[in-house]
């Protein structure tokens, strides 16, 4: 058998990698990001509805027993709310978590948080992440990001083939022989504003 018929040329390998990455990105978007977006909208609507009902009860001077029952209903939903949103006072903790995920998956990472956009009860902050590493470690990194309690809406993943020769940035991970992908991720993160800020 002719060896040339068995080996794929370099261009075919690159096309194959791009097709695989594109398929994985589509799977992430349709099976993780879109269902999560619908879930957070549902939770937000439930919380707002219960908050309105609670405020009506206060305005109508309901007795303490009824108010306590309402609080018991709202508290579990507020816990979900707090898990999905990042507290504004926990920016350093959030960045430290991302750095830990990158180190765990042997990825070289740079993080940039843009100024946030204020909404009525929360803030949307654009997160830019630049990564370098292997394809397998990228997949593990994305899986770990998706496993976080925080809601991170990834809407752009740009993957380019980096240099095939080893550079100094990979010296920290000597076993990463195939660490030759450069990845740029753009995502929206959702931050819970302090109560004093939302009521001013």
UniProtKB/TrEMBL annotation:
Signal peptide: none
Transmembrane segments: 14-33
Name under which the protein is recorded: Pilus assembly protein PilO
Origin superkingdom: Bacteria
Keyword field contains Transmembrane helix: yes
Organism this protein belongs to: Candidatus Falkowbacteria bacterium RIFOXYD2_FULL_34_120
UniProt keyword annotations, A-Z: Membrane, Transmembrane, Transmembrane helix
A matching Pfam family: PilO
GO BP annotation list: type IV pilus assembly; type IV pilus-dependent motility
